[in-house]
């Protein structure tokens, strides 16, 4: 009799354990869902959707935030930008064919895929993110840069540039002052260095002279 009771108790215990395990196995898994707001993927910017006059300029809040594609790139949060004659000319379509060849040398994209196009070459701002190969800058650094005309420009909240296109902003300049200098300064330097042939080894005591027509006549 005791033997039968023992068997019944063990059987009941095994049945209870099996049912408990079955309930555990059938219980749906719970995924932890973060309630933190996701990072925004869009930003405000001035863009053009076609070439033309001032009426083609459009302000949008939905321009995609640029991302780092190459390890030598940095993302800058724009604090100030400036307008150069090249921006006005690019708005009208100046150099569009040549710039599109630079953007797409293999001619993979169809015509018009450069739009929406953000103008602006000068920028002064703060580094937000750096590529893995960037050694001279870190997030939080105040920098200035001149962005090449085949890249998306600086009339936006963020812009991505290569590390060799950016340098630390002089501490003596505000962001507004700094943003007025890079492109025009590089244009002047290019004229002096590339056209005039001046460099740090041969420029002592030399200067440009121009005739009444504005033509360069040589160096003295």
Automatic annotation (TrEMBL):
InterPro entries: ADH-like_N, GroES-like_sf, YIM1/Zinc_Alcohol_DH_Fams. Gene3D superfamilies: Medium-chain alcohol dehydrogenases, catalytic domain. One of its GO terms (cellular component) is mitochondrion. This is Reticulon 4 interacting protein 1. It comes from the Eukaryota. The lineage of its organism: Eukaryota, Metazoa, Chordata, Craniata, Vertebrata. It comes from Oryctolagus cuniculus (Rabbit). Residues 71-170 form the Alcohol dehydrogenase-like N-terminal domain.
């Amino acid at each position: 009799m005791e033997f039968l009771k023992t068997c019944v108790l063990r059987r009941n215990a095994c049945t209870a354990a099996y049912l408990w395990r079955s309930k555990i196995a059938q219980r749906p898994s719970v995924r932890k869902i973060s309630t933190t707001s996701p990072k925004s993927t869009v930003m405000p910017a001035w863009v053009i959707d076609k070439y033309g006059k001032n009426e083609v300029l459009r302000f949008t809040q939905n321009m995609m935030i640029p991302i780092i594609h190459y390890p030598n790139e940095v993302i800058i949060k724009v604090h100030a930008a400036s307008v150069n004659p090249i921006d006005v000319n690019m708005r009208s379509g100046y150099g569009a064919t040549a710039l599109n060849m630079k953007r797409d040398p293999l001619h993979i994209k169809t015509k018009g895929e450069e739009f929406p196009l953000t103008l602006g070459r000068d920028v002064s701002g703060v580094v937000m993110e750096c590529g893995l190969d960037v050694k001279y800058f870190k997030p939080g650094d105040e920098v200035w840069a001149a962005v090449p005309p085949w890249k998306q420009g600086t009339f936006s909240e963020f812009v991505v540039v290569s590390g060799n296109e950016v340098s630390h902003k002089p501490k003596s300049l505000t962001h507004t002052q700094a943003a007025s200098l890079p492109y025009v300064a590089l244009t002047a330097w290019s004229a002096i260095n590339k056209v005039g042939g001046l460099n740090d080894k041969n420029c002592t005591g030399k200067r440009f002279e121009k005739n009444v027509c504005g033509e360069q006549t040589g160096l003295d």
